[in-house]
Amino acid sequence: MYGxxxxxxxxxxxxxxxxxxxxxxxxxxxxxxxxxxAAGRRFVAMSGNELYTAVEAGRAVVLExxxxxxxxxxxxxxxxxxxxxxxxxxxDRIQIQLAFNQIAPALExxxxxxxxxxxxYAGDDQSDQWFRPLLEGTGYYHHTDxxxxxxxxxxxxxxxxxxxxxxPAHSVDLAEVLQLDARCFEPQWVKxxxxxxxxxxxxxxxxxxxxxxxxxxxSYATSHFGGRLAHLVRIAVDPEHRGRGIGARLLAEFxxxxxxxxxxxxxxxxxxYNHHAQRLYRWFGFTPTGxxxxxxxxxx
Length: 300
Prior knowledge:
2 domains, Aminopeptidase, alpha+beta, 13-stranded mixed β-sheet, about 300 residues
């Protein structure tokens, strides 16, 4: 029996023919926030501020039913015609496949309007179960895997190039670090100022490597669980200076940092096809954990 409220045990699902899909607006931020809290299915790989900035800037698509938002998808800020699908949420009021069928073409059209030619996605074990099949059904394909390495202990097999000067990074280094990052990585892996600027200011470990007064590499790491785990977020060496022991110098600095804070576990991630970097990590005592994060790509 149900009470006098007249509620039914099952709520009628929304007819997709009664929905409207459109680009996001600044006024949608509150509704998107509510949807993310209430959505039965949600994938979010960006901070709240980044997501709301994407919504305000029109880098998201929403599905609307009678002025209520029932689904949303958002892109990262594009870098060299590449963007990442960083968020998707769908209300229980609409069948997820039908909602995605509405959202996906509009999101791709939005991407094309911003000269984006490639979309990437990297989820987690939970979102991959339901979201990855939706993406693969619209043309996303397996691009690579991000694999996890770990090290226990602080042994350093070599200190690297002794001529390299390593020092903490400062805000005035940002422009040079950004230029270096763009030279070191493919567009889908490049980090912009929204990531690197706060990392330089707030990070406990963000260092540059200099030769002849020029920044030729940088590295930064984060600590977790009260300093018990140190994670190497980035290590970058100018392609023109590779093979000169700069990467080893930066990696040695990271291990030294981990020892100073007492981190018993050191971790890092790298692309499965980056064999050169993996040789360096293995030399330093890092071993694969077996964890792999699939990365999908969609050419527009």
